[in-house]
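In the design runs reported in the main text, the only information available to the sequence generator was the tokenized backbone. The following block is the verbatim input for one such run; it is reproduced so that readers can re-run the procedure and compare outputs position by position.
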């Protein structure tokens, strides 16, 4: 089921869906007599891609996910969820981590420094060791770090973290838009962590600006990540994980 999810998900993200709709329209226009249908499909594909890569829609999609959470919590155990990596020994460790992973490590280390005597747990297959190495490079004592290197998704992270923390209170650090799904999965396992958000994508003030009319990769990336989270929440709900 995990493999099926990983194979299917990329095809449901905005770019392939919008391009797929537009390509269907082009097929109708070039190879059939269904000219009206072709124009409709091409228009839907292009307009959808435009809306998802410009204007207020990306922020609108992110807003329900990226809520404000406390940043000062006097708890001594910090769990930092993995956020992806591209292992390459020729690169510095920070460059091997994706932006979400870097943001999570930075936030976790900030909390660690503010709470002397804290311990950290990094999760995620492949990425946990790199995140730990990055944290050590930022001054975290290696003896204060534990790893969960078996988790392959958020559901398995919740199950494995439960074995490590038992009944201890802990801070859960992950990307701001990932917190709703992560919290739901952890609570399903009987835990009630203190969430701390890292790497907010929705940093705007809500005001409309002239440059919003132009599409761009940053806005499209925001839409894709928001839609990915909504799909993750739906998948977890359908499978009874939350």
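Verbatim output:
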């Amino acid at each position: 089921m995990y493999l099926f999810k990983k194979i299917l998900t990329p095809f449901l993200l905005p770019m392939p869906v919008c391009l797929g709709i537009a390509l269907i329209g082009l097929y109708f226009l070039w190879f059939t007599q269904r000219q009206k249908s072709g124009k409709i499909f091409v228009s839907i594909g292009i307009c959808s891609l435009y809306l998802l890569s410009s204007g207020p829609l990306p922020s609108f999609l992110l807003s329900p996910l990226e809520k404000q959470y406390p940043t000062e919590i006097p708890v001594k155990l910090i769990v930092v969820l993995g956020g992806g990596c591209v292992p390459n020994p020729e690169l510095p460790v920070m460059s091997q981590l994706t932006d979400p992973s870097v943001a999570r490590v930075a936030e976790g280390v900030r909390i660690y420094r503010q709470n002397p005597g804290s311990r950290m747990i990094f999760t995620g297959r492949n990425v946990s060791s790199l995140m730990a190495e990055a944290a050590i490079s930022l001054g975290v004592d290696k003896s204060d770090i534990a790893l969960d290197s078996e988790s392959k998704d958020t559901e398995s992270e919740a199950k494995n973290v439960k074995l490590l923390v038992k009944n201890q209170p802990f801070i859960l650090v992950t990307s701001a838009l990932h917190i709703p799904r992560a919290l739901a999965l952890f609570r399903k396992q009987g835990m009630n962590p203190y969430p701390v958000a890292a790497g907010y994508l929705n940093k705007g003030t809500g005001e409309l600006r002239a440059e919003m009319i132009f599409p761009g990769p940053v806005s499209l990336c925001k839409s894709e990540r928001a839609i990915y989270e909504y799909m993750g929440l739906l998948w977890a709900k359908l499978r009874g994980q939350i």
